[in-house]
Amino acid sequence: MMDELIKTIAEVEREKGIERDILIEALEAAMLTAARKKKGLMADLEAQFDEETGEIHVIEFKTVVETVENPDLEISLDDALAIEDDPDLQMGDQIGLLLPTEDLGRIAAQTAKQVIIQRVREADRANIFSGFKDRKGELVSGTVRRIERGNVVIDLLKSEAVMPYREQVPRENSRVGDRLECLVLDVREEARGHQIVLSRAHPDFVAKLFSREVPEIYENIVSIRAVAREAGTRTKIAVSSRDSEVDPVGACVGMKGIRVQAVVQELRNEKIDIVPWSADPVRFVCAALQPAEVSRVLVDEGAQRMEIVIPDDQLSLAIGRRGQNVRLAAELTGWKLELSSESKMNERRAIAYESLGRIEGLGDLLLQTLYNYGYQSASAVAEGDVEVLAQIPGVEHERALELVEGARTAVASEFAEAGIRMELARDQALRDRAIVSAVEAMDDKGRQLLADLDATSASLLATCDSIGLSDPADLYFEALSIGLEDFATRFGLSDSRTWVLMHTIEKALVEAAQGDWDLLIDEPSADDFGVAKTEADAESASADADEDSVEADDASEAVDEGAAVESGDSVEVAPEA
What domains appear along the chain, each with residue ranges and CATH number? Predict the structure, then answer.
């Protein structure tokens, strides 16, 4: 029996990897717990494992006293001498009594069994934890055992690990029995045991896959400097080489793309951009925005921000689908990136040149220099530090003072002009509102006013109705919004007729609104008025001729129909639907 116990300890030690001392300690604790169930909590007990015989002895210690007051801890001298024949035994000595294990009972045995199982389980967990705690960041492979509340439980042979929902790749469905390769993200020791957390969505997962596929990375010739990833769709990695003769991007791609394709297959066709890392942040950012081309880069090192100028036809490529490309580039480089098209940059440059050009005595060369140094308006120069301005090449301290003073004057002028523009805009709004109110107050919404104009015709009015321009105010505002030339092209009118039409409409509307406003459209010449009336009359005459022709055709058809009836011919009439 005892030999079997020693064999069992050796077998558990071999299979579970639990040290022999821990198993023996668990057995001793189990027997001690069983003995306490039998003898009570007050008893002074000790369990000892005999290495030679393989037996576990439970010993109860009692103190020799003259009068026994506590039987759990004390024994009389006569009883002690009866148990142990020792003539030197005296009061106050301790005596150890061996408890037969068969006297512990069935319940005590069950308790001992539970303690042994619990201790072995704790030791097993401790071994697994110690084995995985140093494996953070490594790749492991396992089989999906079950899925609980969206979390995937993976069997790693000696242990179970969990891949939380947030660490799974979106739209990547795992089934029970699938074999997955994952990254050991964390190993946690909790009250209920250890927990191994895995991930397939972490950026380091991609880096570890490349480390496995690319020998140059494993040998530290090529380094992965940064990874930015949106799991399931796209990943950008930046690589560099310690050997000038080794191309880091080519090493990661491999012959005919075999290395990167192995990673892409593991990631289930996730797109991967491999870019060369550079110590120069501008070069690095330009490479990270690939495949888009970059025209110009403006750097603000203090704010860790770059403004990237992109050709108009490359802007959507640089931004990427839903901003993914620029977002990953910013994450990869660690810089805040702002993209601008060349056309937008040209507009901003024109506005900046106009504002800076207001500074008196500012030549073209100095204007360009100020713009290149980040001064994009007169107000920026006015609020600038004189000492900073004086550090610009070609600008001395006295000249910097003159620039600041001139910029302040220019800013005051801009404010004055802005006030005038606001006043004009307010007057224009009041004028337009009064015109609309005057037309709405008319019974026919101004239709008769529009029909009485010399430059209008019935066909023109019908065309206006067909596109929703039903009153003179609508027609007038449409012409102002798109311009007289485009209006003339849209309605097939001559420039003279369009000019006369809009002028007369504006004049009539202003009079109807009873306002004292200047006309926006200059008065046409007498020749233009003549051309407009001639075209309108010709258009009306053409419309009348078309109507007469239609009436004649209808009368002719009626006569032919009557003749056919009189001659006895049959006329078929289709039934009404």
Answer: 2-128 (3.30.1480.10), 135-201 (2.40.50.140), 442-541 (no CATH)
